[in-house]
Amino acid sequence: MMMHRTTAGLPTWWRRALVALMLLILCSCQAVMIPPEDDSEVISDGPPPEVIEAMRADAFPRSLPAELVKSESRELSGEPIAMPQINSRPGQPGTATCGCACCGGGNACSTESCPPDEIIGPGDEYLCDGGDYGLPAAVRADWTVDGLEQEDAVAHYDTLDGSVVVTPSNRVCVYAPRFAAVRRVVSLVAHEHRTQLDVAVEQHAPVRADDMQPVISATQHHVIATNVAERPVNVFRSRQQAGEALRLLGVTDVYSSLGVYANLEVIRTGEVIGAEKAKLAESVQSAVTWSSDQAVQVVFENKQAVALVGVKQPGIVYGTSGPESPRLRLIKLASTYHALPGEEVEFTLRFDNIGDQIIGNVTIVDNLTTRLEYVPDTAKSTVDAAFSSVPNGSGSTVLRWEIEEPLEPGDGGILQFKSRVK
Amino acid sequence: MTTVSPSARSVSHRTQFPGLLRWVTLVIAVTASTANGQQPPVHWLHAGATPPGAIGSLRLARGGPVSGYFQPVRIRAPQGAWISLAEEGSFGATHSGEVLVGMHIGAVYRLHVSGFAPDFDREVYPTVEVIDRLYPPAGLALRYPIPVELTEEELNLAADGSFVTRVIYLEEPAQALPARQYDDEQAWVEAPSGSDPLAVADEMGRPVAILRIGGRQPSRNNTAAVPCDPPYIQYDPAGCDISDGP
């Protein structure tokens, strides 16, 4: 009988199916990876050893050599674009426990790339703005930008051959930790209720005890409604001002208002001067530091985009090889590298057409992070541009400059705005 | 011959049913353990109700640049209240309203707070336990201390016999509320009933300190209430210049 029980169990194919099902369930606990859609090479999280060596030998050690930087290309159309890669966002723990406060928390953090006397720590104490992380930004046929997430700052423009190119800025991080608290109050009233409830259970039915001892009376100090009222999201949405502040300023006005941190030749004229390297390195310390090992997204139609400049100067420049190659450089600076809640931080964006052809419809978009609040009427531009600020749906603002005139080769401009740390 | 077949089927059904139950139980157990493993990393083994010092000690055991570091902490009481820290078995100098001190991580510091509204003659003895540190740029440690707020409401709750646990955490920037917060106010939420405040803080950010306020008064006969007086460094709040890092 026992032998019959063992041999007359589940069929073999049924057992194998169950084993396969369990293996599938076990494998499903791994992280979800979105595979690349095309054959373009995925940018790795950390640089290879030869890149690290090149970075050490360079004056700006956190920029990758051009020949070692890979990018991806895809065609742009009005159809939805499948994003080939989810990039990890620097400066935020969770995805990468190797968080590095001085270089953005990417996996490539190493003590060699951090300034001396800096202790590696999590990146959750920094507010970052700039770059293009998460889903890559892309432009639809109706000029709406997809993939523009919080903290992203990109520029897009049209080339003579009809392509739309998206260029991210470098990343600027400001040390601005903010604290909150979780409270719990346990009162003696609660203990008295528990004692009385025990007595009631012995003498009465539980239903009766519940009637006489409403448990809610023991939790009077837990005022849930107060907590809900502390974060009315709709209030913050209401203070956003759509279609705000078109303000055009002459070149001289903006130049005269450049802060010390941005009063550099590379910002005024776009020309990098060797004598300013030290000051520039200090002013864009965060910019260069935090944009070192991050994957960037540049889109060219049917062309491979490679980083052309980036080792010797800040900012990110992308272009395609060929006799006529459009190139736009976008540099972002912050007026300070640390700020308390309530303080203002001024951001400066310098853009230059350093290609050999004219580019048009240049649009620069900056999606501020949740804890940065745009200060109204502080946006400036040295060129004619239509400025708009719209809520981004998460309590902050999307800033948008549409440069009205096409940019000739060598032309550029400066954009400035102020934001307040919440 | 035909009578054998129904009998065999019935035997087969009896044996298949327990076997199927075992398989189903195994599949459910595997599925449940898989779902459990996907929970976010929090202080599962810890709780806000653990004795003071336990969580900080475990943080020290995890290693890192925390042992021996004096983390600046700014303790602020309501206007008119007095704060003093335990030192060498008693309470030291009193400070009006605010004090900026450097505290060891994992140690428990006992405070004496008195002179708060509405009666101005009550006193409580909170404890502060720093369980993690900050990593500010060089020279900015005093400008960005961990804020510990002693609110008038909570001090009175403790004086009336309640026990208040306040877990201070560093907000995760991506999850931060889009609300303005200035230096003189700290946002807080009430831990939902039945949940642990440390676990709630773990989900919302990185817990860095635990403030416990109770109504019990330390006495010589009560060993559990002996003042906790580890070493600390006192800073001048008015002199928190950028260059005055510890």
Q: What does it look like?
A:
The complex is a heterodimer of chains A (422) and B (246). By secondary structure, chain A is α+β, with helices and mostly antiparallel strands. Chain A contains eleven helices and 17 strands. In chain A, the strands form four sheets. In chain A, strands 8, 9, 10, 11, 13, 14 and 17 form a seven-stranded antiparallel sheet that branches. Chain A has a five-stranded antiparallel sheet with strand order 5-4-12-16-15, with no helix packed on it. The N and C termini of chain A lie far apart (76 Å). By secondary structure, chain B is an alpha+beta fold. Helices cover 24% and strands 28% of the residues of chain B. Chain B has four helices and twelve strands, in the order ααββββββββαββαββ. The radius of gyration of chain B is 26 Å and the shape is globular. Classes of the chains: A alpha+beta (422), B alpha+beta (246). The interface between A and B is large, with 68 and 71 residues.
Structural class of chain A: alpha+beta
The biggest beta sheet of chain A reads:
7 strands, antiparallel
The rounded distance between the terminal residues' Cα atoms of chain B is 95 Å
Number of helices of chain A: 11
Q: Uncertain spans of chain A, ≥5 residues at pLDDT below 50?
A: 1-7, 31-48, 54-117, 224-229, 235-256, 286-314
Query: Oligomerization state of this entry?
Result: heterodimer
Rg of chain A computed from alpha carbons, rounded to a whole number of angstroms: 28 Å
**SS elements, strand count of chain A:** 17
Helix and strand succession of chain B?
HHEEEEEEEEHEEHEE
From the spread of the alpha carbons, the general shape of chain B counts as globular
Radius of gyration of chain B in whole Å, from Cα?
26 Å
Number of strands of chain B: 12
Task: Report the structural category of chain B.
Answer: alpha+beta
Per DSSP, the total helix count of chain B is 4
Give the uncertain stretches of chain B in residue-range form. 1-12, 241-246
**How far do the termini of chain A sit from each other?**
76 Å
